[in-house]
């Protein structure tokens, strides 16, 4: 019996040595991890909705559609290989973002907003 993993939060995936590899393709446990972003019908931005493993980019888009837009929630899907994402660490929060705190001119408190400017 094969081992199971829920890596990426998308459910149990067989990972044992007896998992069939198909027609010369890598075993499922060797598929790259993709991060999935979906733009909703009412939203303006793509939002991270989860992760999945897929053998290639095209299959990742199809799997993301099947997993994360089952109820017509989205109008656009992005999939990105997790290895292509570079992110800051939460431990670096203070050194990374603290320098912007001393730039008070970036805050709108120094500017007069005309009365005829809407939505501010």
TrEMBL record:
It is an enzyme of class 1 (oxidoreductase). Keywords: Oxidoreductase. Pfam families: PaaB. Residues 1-26 are annotated as: Disordered. GO terms for molecular function: phenylacetyl-CoA 1,2-epoxidase activity. Coiled coil: none annotated. It comes from the Bacteria. The keyword RNA-binding does not apply. Its EC number is 1.14.13.149. NCBIfam families: PA_CoA_Oxy2. The lineage of its organism: Bacteria, Bacillati, Actinomycetota, Actinomycetes, Geodermatophilales. Transmembrane segments: none annotated. This is 1,2-phenylacetyl-CoA epoxidase subunit B.
């Amino acid at each position: 019996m094969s081992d199971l993993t829920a890596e990426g939060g998308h459910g149990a995936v067989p990972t044992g040595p007896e998992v069939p590899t198909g027609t010369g393709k890598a075993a499922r446990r060797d598929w790259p991890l993709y991060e999935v972003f979906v733009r909703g019908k009412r939203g303006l931005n793509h939002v991270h909705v989860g992760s999945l493993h897929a053998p290639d980019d095209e299959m990742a888009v199809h799997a993301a559609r099947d997993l994360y837009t089952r109820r017509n929630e989205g109008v656009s899907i992005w999939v990105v290989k997790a290895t292509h994402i570079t992110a800051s660490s939460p431990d670096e929060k203070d050194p990374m973002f603290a320098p912007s705190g001393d730039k008070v001119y970036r805050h709108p408190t120094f500017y007069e907003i005309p009365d005829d400017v809407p939505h501010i």
